[in-house]
Amino acid sequence: MSPRLQNPSAPPDRSGCGNLRAGSGPTGTVHGPEKRLRLTISTGVAMPVVRAQFWSGANAETKNAIAASITDVLVQHLSCPPAAVTVILEEIDKEDWFIGGVDSVTLTSGQ
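The structure assignment produced for this chain is given below.
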């Protein structure tokens, strides 16, 4: 069972990850395969915040799996309690995602 589900009645531990403070820790952007996923990780006052941007169309099950996987990675590598991790998922329509000035609909259609 995932650690975040072991005791749902206990108040969440939002003490953060190790000794992370505002302005410290990793901040950066990672582009996934074919640049369809943009992942930004930053650390705030007492918690890491991850913002993942991807093309529209993911179902709730996929979004839950993405958020759980990101949370698990940060818990493992930053020694965070799961409740301290914030994951924000943003779906962006292909026609609103431009690479090199060309929208992703055109890029993926082979034109």
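Interim note for the steering committee: Residues 15-93 form a domain with the Macrophage Migration Inhibitory Factor fold (CATH 3.30.429.10). The helical segments are 60-78, 104-108.
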